[in-house]
């Protein structure tokens, strides 16, 4: 058993003592049980607090109001917030680790975890195109603002209004449909829970070499409440947020100076919920292959390795684009690099 307490004092921000507890129990030589609990405290960064607000004028049809008439605009306020409070969290995890004596090369584990954040510092509007159609963001949106509200919003920026509509016409306050406040803020609650699985098995076959099988899988469920009275918003499994399921597995073989590894990667699909009509984005499965050969001391201790990442050149699903300047895929979760080949030489001294 382990226990620890950390005390933090940030002048002008806050102070807090955060405890942590850990327990490992091995009732037999075949498995262990692990349990950990703790609290944490994080002050907002200097960037999050003092970065000045920036105010943009955007085309309304790109912000989720698909039926907005031509010429309608939206004002977006982005940047820091000097009134941010520290965020706090409590975490709990439990693990079961199996390493049976009867199978020396086998090790498997399953872990469950839960993290509750309060006052978490985030940029609350992750998807601007959904902000105007999702009631969860209602408190951050000022619909049909008056001239005074528009002037106050523009006055927040040290450089004034940044017109990104591309209309090429003078700013018309009467065309503003809404003001969106996307500055950093403390949200009421973030909840993260999930399960991790891991298996690894090493064994040898006479005259056939050494083998290693391994796999990792994770399931994640996250939600957020922007305000105490608002309902939770699902984050996991939605576009530009972590998918609910990920997996990585592999097979390794080695014999004498030769090593070969084949790895399969899977990133689960997500839902594109930026507009009223949702769209499914398929997951991505890729394979990696590496071959390594040690040339031995007579060749100067040189290793030669060939690697192919994304062996079959798989591409992520295309998504709807609000503008041609945005990537046509979920760049947060998937890679569009495609097949990548490399050859390396390594010399040991």
TrEMBL record:
Membrane topology reported for the UniProt record: Multi-pass membrane protein
Keywords, alphabetical: Cell outer membrane, Membrane, Receptor, TonB box, Transmembrane, Transmembrane beta strand, Transport
Major localization class: membrane
Intracellular or extracellular location(s): Cell outer membrane
Family as reported in the entry's similarity comment: Belongs to the TonB-dependent receptor family.
PROSITE patterns: TONB_DEPENDENT_REC_3
Residue ranges annotated for the TonB-dependent receptor-like beta-barrel domain, each copy included: 3-311
A Pfam family this chain is assigned to: TonB_dep_Rec_b-barrel
GO terms under cellular component: cell outer membrane
Top-level lineage group: Bacteria
Name of this chain's protein: TonB-dependent receptor
InterPro entries: Beta-barrel_TonB (IPR000531), Beta-barrel_TonB_sf (IPR036942), TonB-dep_rcpt-like (IPR039426)
Keyword check for Membrane: yes
Entry-linked SUPFAM superfamilies: Porins (SSF56935)
